[in-house]
Amino acid sequence: MEQAIVQAAKLIGAGLAMIGALGGGIGIGLSAQGAVQGIARNPDAAGQVQTNMILGIAFSEAVAIYCLVIALLILFV
Amino acid sequence: MADPKKDPGTRKKGNLRKEFGIVLLSTGVLGALGWHFFPPVMPHVQLPSEPVVAHPLSLPVLGDVYLTNTLVAMLLMDLVVLALVYAVQKAAKSGDLVPRGISGAFEALLEAMYNLTESTAGKWTADIFPYFATFFILVLIANYMELLPGVDSIGWLVPAEHSGHAAKGIFLLKQAGEYTVVPWVRVLSTDLNFTAGLALVSVFMTQVIGVKALGLPYFGKFFNIKAVFTVKPRWMGFIDFLVSILEIISEVAKIISFSFRLFGNLFAGSVMLFVIGFLVPIWFQSAVLLLEAFVGVIQALVFGMLTLMFMSLATHPHGGEHEEAHA
């Protein structure tokens, strides 16, 4: 019984930890939006904009990845 | 209908398409049959790396060192890097001015990376480029090991709930339940030790390059005592000093973010590969492999490029003047 409660708490905790992925998703969407708008106005700068966009996406994705790592740690360690 | 004699191109293409369809159909049928006879097993997710040999190597200072499966992957990666170095060096020494094959590919890759470094780092290109290129190539090779069949899936079969080495046989799948597989080779980037090591090297060498570029005033970024005496309202200068202390925390956060970004991406990727293999036995895993190939190169590029950005930021003098930023 206690084992089952611990397991349930682990699953709920992992689910709660992944709420943080919300921020990463919003961030990636916003940076892609900005990059597409920039490329539409100035297609010549597409290469530079793309590089910076990928860098920015990696930054905001990192936040979601921290949540994922925490969730995995809760579940499997 | 095009005459095959008149138009060999279409004829060939049509044949290829037909063969592709047959292959796809037969793999589907085989996959469905295989699923019937060998039902997929729920993967066992293992976070720390596991030893693949029973006896540890006793070293004087370090104590007992086990040959873990990520260590095997690191040795393989080293072999691949050394083989590439040997091939490129041989091509460079042969005096042939036109690079061919692997050395040509490397020349194109390094030239693109060098131009990228030059556009960011300016006159410090020669100092920064080696770190960028090394990180990119090392992380790329470490990540792409994930795409090889057998990595993460072939190994010793041991009873579950048993962390030690107790070989029961060799098995080809990760399995939960009574037995579990300790793979011989596991993707290197799914070991936090590797990514944290790279992150430590990256952040430490950033400081070294900062000192090389600016001298001791580089540390004014962390202990901005000058602001206390120069900034007009004294309390504003004091706040500047406190903010500069925060820079130290941001350096530590860089280590954490570097290591967890790479580790998290690759670990999540390999878990996803196995879970998808459990849910859909065939075809769909190939699509996930394609995604993983993309993620592998993106993460390698991000690791290298963030190092490049931080290093080139460290070479710029802080305090407002940015006239030599575009040297």
Question: Could you characterize what this model shows?
Answer:
The complex is a heterodimer of chains A (77) and B (327). By secondary structure, chain A is an all-alpha fold. Chain A is 88% helix and 0% strand. The model of chain A has no long low-confidence stretch (mean pLDDT 88). Chain B has one domain (57-315). Chain B has a three-stranded antiparallel β-sheet with strand order 4-3-5, with no helix packed on it. In chain B, strands 1-2 form a two-stranded antiparallel sheet. Chain B starts with 7 loop residues before the first helix and ends in a 12-residue tail after the last helix. The interface between A and B is medium-sized, with 15 and 21 residues.
Keywords:
A: 77 residues, mainly alpha, 3 helices, B: 327 residues, two-stranded antiparallel ribbon, 8 helices, disordered C terminus
Low-confidence stretches of chain A: none
The averaged pLDDT of chain A comes out at 88
Query: What is the chain-wise order of helices and strands of chain A?
Result: HHH
Number of helices of chain A: 3
Question: Sheet with the most strands of chain A?
Answer: none
Distance between the termini of chain A: 20 Å
Order of helices and strands of chain B: HEEHHHEEEHHHH
Total domains of chain A: 1
Radius of gyration of chain B: 26 Å
Helix share, percent of chain B: 55-70%
